[in-house]
Specification:
three-stranded mixed beta sheet
Amino acid sequence: MGDPRDFTNFMNAVIDQKTYDKITRYIDEARKSNEAEVIAGGTYDDSEGWFIRPTIIRADKPDYISMCDEIFGPVMSIFVYDDGDWAETLRLVDSTSPYALTGAVFARTSGQFEKRLIH
């Protein structure tokens, strides 16, 4: 993490103070929440640039704010669902956010998921 002119850096600062403030509010909210936990990263520093360490937020509810909003920063939110709730979880994924820019489902078998994903 560092200067974008140094191509050995995998990532660099976010674009401006406004973006930095928006992203760090999600991280701070997850830290304070009883419905989420910051499980990786979560640190940031604006003393020289607007640097935010890549962060993972584990949400207890699929409609937690960081699961629904597009953050546009180095923050990934995850929701771990019970195996038996996969069909309901797919429905939630399809209806929770109006954007549907990103998402992933990890499974050992694909048959049932394929049937559910075909509209």
